[in-house]
Structure formats: structure tokens, C-alpha cells
TrEMBL record:
UniProt-listed PANTHER family: PREFLAGELLIN PEPTIDASE
Residues passing through the membrane, by range: 27-50, 57-79, 99-120, 141-162
Main subcellular location: membrane
Topology class, membrane: Multi-pass membrane protein
Gene Ontology MF annotations: aspartic-type endopeptidase activity
Stretches assigned to the Prepilin type IV endopeptidase peptidase domain: 9-111
Protein family per UniProt: Belongs to the peptidase A24 family.
Domain of life: Bacteria
EC number: 3.4.23.43
Keywords for the protein's UniProt record, in alphabetical order: Cell membrane, Hydrolase, Membrane, Transmembrane, Transmembrane helix
Annotated protein name in UniProt: Prepilin peptidase CpaA
Amino acid sequence: MASLSLLVVFPFLMAYAASRDLLTMLIPNTVSIALAVAFAAFAIASGFGLSEIANHLGAGAVTLLVTFSLFAFGLIGGGDAKLAAATALWIGFDHLPEYLLLASVSGGALTLGLLAMRALPLPGPVARLPFALHLHDAKTGVPYGIALALAALLVLPETVIWTRSLGI
């Protein structure tokens, strides 16, 4: 049962967050809440000890503190801040620096790609898609949820909870 959360629920929610951010520039609160609830269920089903739970809760809390500070300064969106914190619950402190670094690098690449795309006119068929028009608009932000999801999906298989849960 615990591996179902790890192998299905977590990747699905990350992919959903990324696609919603791409299409609407919003990450619903329900995604972050579902990630937190799924982590709690996973931790209980996996028999996490208090120190392991504290490690993961601490990673989520520290990430929430930092990302909400960035949100307060208008540097990232609120959905991005909540998604990063909910993801940090799963990652824990052990691989949190790698997650944040990978999210930053992929977010920077995404930003540069969007800036390059915005400098060019949209091709005819794409120009009819509302989300493409919105994304192409220079006033629109960056769907950073894509970078957060990518980083999470790349880092999670390196974590202790992944190897322990799958018996690797």
C-alpha cells in the first residue's frame, strides 16, 4: 500500500501540478494538501519513526518559510511556494539541497526558454490555443510548477524513503 503512494500518487500529483501550472498558471491548493495527506499516509504505512517524521516535517516547514518569504517579495507564486513545501515533505532534509538546486536550474532554463519563445511570434496553429497565447504574453509569469515537479521526480528515487520502500 505504501509503495502505491510513492509510485503512483506522488508522480501523478506532481505531473498534475505541472500541467495545471502550464495551462492555467495556477497550482490548486488541493494538490499541495493531497501531497501532504499522501505523505502522512505513506509515513504511517511505512512505519516511520518520530525522528524520520521530524526530518520530513522540518524539511517541509523550512521550505515553506523560505518560499513564502520569496512569495512575499513577489519572486514566486503562492502555489509554487506551497508545492515546494509539500514536495519537501517527501524529500526530507537528506536530499533537499539537490531538489532545490535542480528546481532552480530547471526553472532558470524554463525562464530562458520562455523569454526566447516570447521574442518570436507564435506559429499559426499554436496561436489559436488560449493557454499558448497567455503563456506567450510578456506580462505572464513563469509556470515554475513545471520545474518543481521535474526536480521532484528526478530527486525522489535517490531518497531513503524510495530505496527503503521498494527494498532497493
